[in-house]
Design brief:
Bound molecules: NADPH dihydro-nicotinamide-adenine-dinucleotide phosphate, dtdp-4-keto-L-rhamnose
Catalytic activity: dTDP-beta-L-rhamnose + NADP(+) = dTDP-4-dehydro-beta-L-rhamnose + NADPH + H(+)
EC number: 1.1.1.133
Protein name: dTDP-4-dehydrorhamnose reductase
Number of helices: 9
Oligomer: single chain
Family: Belongs to the dTDP-4-dehydrorhamnose reductase family.
Distance between the termini: 38 Å
Strand order of the largest sheet: 2-1-3-4-5-10
Radius of gyration: 18 Å
CATH architecture: 3-Layer(aba) Sandwich
GO biological process, one term: dTDP-rhamnose biosynthetic process
CATH superfamily: NAD(P)-binding Rossmann-like Domain
């Protein structure tokens, strides 16, 4: 099986490349410099030339706060870029695995979010991802939209931010009223390859949206406590969201119900704390 990957320079993109090499999967990986997904003719050219069995879109505009000002840039990548991939994949009859986010929800639901719950994004990033989902669903034909959350395991994420801030702060204040499922990029990569294998089997017809995130649900404060477990500093202080003013509002409830992906693909929710300890051990923290 040959898989074409976009956004290869990002957290999930890098994890996909590492896992492909470990599992002996043939990939053609493009980072932003080698394939800008906003360039429709480049997308057509690269996908046609390599004729992959599956395309995985790991490219995205992910700067949540910056997106409030850079609306056009966010929509250009997350909506138009996704549309470009969907159009080419549809024309060539190639399944498209597209990644989306918990931030398409407003977080006001009492329980975990199901795939067909109404979306109502609170910020520009969430709206641009929601638009990307809509275009993929309308155009791609054979598509999987994998909604995930709170990704860590690459260069830029909450874990690295916390470790960096701990170098210069004895105390950190962390929001304790937003709950979600932290998810390791390696676990997302593994799930995407499992889906790719099943989706290319004859007769597969379970296209659609799937939720996948780590367990157990946790607040950002709880996540920070796990990052610094066993350390005396920094001292962590729980605060409400309005105690940490940022340009983009985040959903209070980001918990994704992951029973559909278990039922259809037999994929379990991984314990994110396991991946976190592995990452911290590697960094000798
Ligand atoms: N990070 C998170 O917490 C979460 C992420 N997701 C989703 O998961 C997916 C992967 O995210 P993640 O790996 O964390 O994100 P990253 O920001 O780590 O990676 C995204 C990559 O896409 C690249 N990119 C940006 N614009 C383009 C473009 N026009 N053409 C091609 N590549 C481009 C970026 O390049 P450059 O760095 O040069 O801009 C970057 O390398 C995304 O769809 C994201 O929305 C979902 C839930 C949570
Ligand atoms: C750095 C910092 C953040 N926070 C809060 C702000 C925010 O509510 C929360 C997380 O902040 P971050 O900016 O690291 O993460 P954020 O950009 O909100 O992460 C999101 O990224 C996008 C791409 C997604 O799709 C989401 O699933 C989610 O992972 O922690 C604190 O309370 N104290 C701090 O010192």
């Amino acid at each position: 099986m040959k898989i074409l990957i976009t956004g290869a320079g990002g957290q999930v993109g890098k994890a996909l490349q590492a896992l492909a090499s470990a599992q002996g999967i043939e990939i053609v990986a493009y980072d932003r410099q080698s394939l800008d997904i906003c360039d429709r003719s480049a997308v057509q050219e690269k996908i046609s030339a390599s004729a992959p069995h599956v395309v995985i879109n790991a490219a995205a505009y992910t700067a949540v706060d910056k997106a409030e000002e850079e609306v056009e840039a966010a929509f250009s990548v997350n909506a138009k870029g996704a549309e470009n991939l969907a159009m080419t994949c549809a024309a060539l009859d190639i399944p498209l695995l597209h990644i989306s986010t918990d931030f398409v929800f407003d977080g006001k639901k009492a329980g975990a979010y199901l795939e067909d719950d109404d979306i109502a994004p609170l910020n520009v990033y969430g709206r641009s991802k929601a638009e990307g989902e809509a275009r993929v669903a309308a155009i791609a034909g054979k598509y999987i939209i994998l909604r995930t959350a709170w990704v860590f395991g690459g260069a830029q994420n909450f874990v690295n931010t916390m470790l960096r801030l701990a170098e210069s702060h004895r105390e950190l204040t962390i929001v304790d009223d937003q709950t979600g499922g932290p998810t390791a990029a390696d676990d997302i990569a593994s799930v995407l390859f499992r889906i790719a294998r099943k989706a290319t089997q004859p007769g597969f017809n379970d296209w659609g949206i799937f939720h996948f995130s780590g367990a157990p649900p946790m607040t950002w404060f709880g996540f920070a406590q796990m990052i610094f477990k066993g350390r005396k500093t920094p001292v962590l202080k729980p605060i409400p969201s309005d105690g940490y003013p940022v340009p983009a509002e985040r959903p209070k409830n980001s918990v994704l119900d992951c029973t559909k992906i278990k039922r259809v693909f037999d994929i379990d929710q991984p314990d994110w704390r396991k991946a976190l300890s592995g990452i911290l051990a590697e960094q000798k923290v």
